[in-house]
Amino acid sequence: TGFFCRRLFVLKDAPPTVYYIPDFISEDEESYLQQQVYKSPKTKWTQLSGRRLQNWGGLPHPKGMLAEKIPDWLQTYCEKISSLGAFSGKTANHVLVNEYKQGEGIMPHEDGPLYHPTVTTISLGSHTFLDFYTPISSQEADAPQTEESRFLFSLLVRPRSLLILQDEMYQRLLHGIRPRAQDTLTDKVVNRSAAGAVPGETLTRGTRVSLTIRHVPKVMKTKLVLGRK
Ligand SMILES: O=C(O)CCC(=O)C(=O)O
Ligand SMILES: [Fe+2]
């Protein structure tokens, strides 16, 4: 749609494929989504080191995800993002909510094979830097590589933006968030201009909630009845 095209930034200087859409949601939608996240039952949260998370839609599993209904406040965005064509015509059926307090992050990792190779992320409350790394090579033993030597570039992800990563960005590179309270805009931030950032500027993080919206292709249609002879 015209709406989408006007606000869509395809990054030419990052590996395929990154779409960064500033102000994908309004400030009202942002506070509504934050309210819903914090209204969820305490038992919905899993505390990890450096962040806590809520899992919605079911637990992805090699044998198929036993699908659980996604609440309407998230389903709306699953449908909105899917209608942009992010999941090749499929509808997102899985949402991870991550909460990072100032100074928290997530280690460089791959998201693994259980998802359609597209990850879409709405950010709430604070910016962050999403950092990308070359994978650990099989020659690791001969020439140990440090996290710093594998670092490639960062994306500045503003609150209310939508980030879509596909292809090589998803399947080959590792991504992570350094546990920092402040970020400085260097030329390693490849979407500086799309994100409206001033080189040299320092941004202070607050609490960031991210909605990671994906499609899990393999779903179990019915619950297996266990223990039946
Ligand atoms: O918070 C983010 O934007 C990244 C989250 C992430 O990489 C994950 O949950 O796998
Ligand atoms: Fe991830």
Q: Could you walk me through the main structural features you see in this protein, from its secondary elements to its overall organization?
A:
This protein is α+β, with helices and mostly antiparallel strands and 229 residues long. It contains five helices and 16 strands. The protein has an eight-stranded antiparallel beta sheet with strand order 1-2-11-8-15-6-4-3. The longest helix is centred in the first third of the chain and has 13 residues, at 27-39. 31% of the residues are buried. Mean pLDDT is 89; it is low at 1-8. The structure holds 2-oxoglutaric acid and fe (ii) ion.
General form:
globular
Q: How much β-strand is present in the residues? A: 25-35%
What is the element string, with H for helices and E for strands?
HEEHEEEHEEEEHEEHEEEEE
Largest sheet: 8 strands, antiparallel
Taking all Cα atoms into account, the compactness measure Rg is 18 Å
N- and C-termini, Cα separation: 54 Å
Could you give the count of β-strands? 16
List low-pLDDT spans.
1-8
Keywords: Dioxygenase, Iron, Metal-binding, Nucleus, Oxidoreductase
Protein name: AlkB homolog 6
Domain Fe2OG dioxygenase: 91-217
Main location: nucleus
Brief synopsis:
GO terms for molecular function: dioxygenase activity; metal ion binding. The protein is α+β, with helices and mostly antiparallel strands and 229 residues long.
Describe the secondary structure blueprint for this structure.
Layout: H1 2-7, E1 9-10, E2 18-21, H2 27-39, E3 45-48, E4 51-56, E5 65-66, H3 72-82, E6 94-100, E7 106-109, E8 118-124, E9 128-133, H4 147-150, E10 151-157, E11 162-166, H5 167-171, E12 174-177, E13 182-184, E14 202-204, E15 208-214, E16 219-220
Parallel strand pairs: 5-16
Antiparallel strand pairs: 1-2, 2-11, 3-4, 4-6, 6-15, 7-12, 8-11, 8-15, 9-10, 9-12, 13-14
The structure holds 2-oxoglutaric acid (AKG) and fe (ii) ion.
The site of 2-oxoglutaric acid has 9 residues, from strand 6 and strand 15.
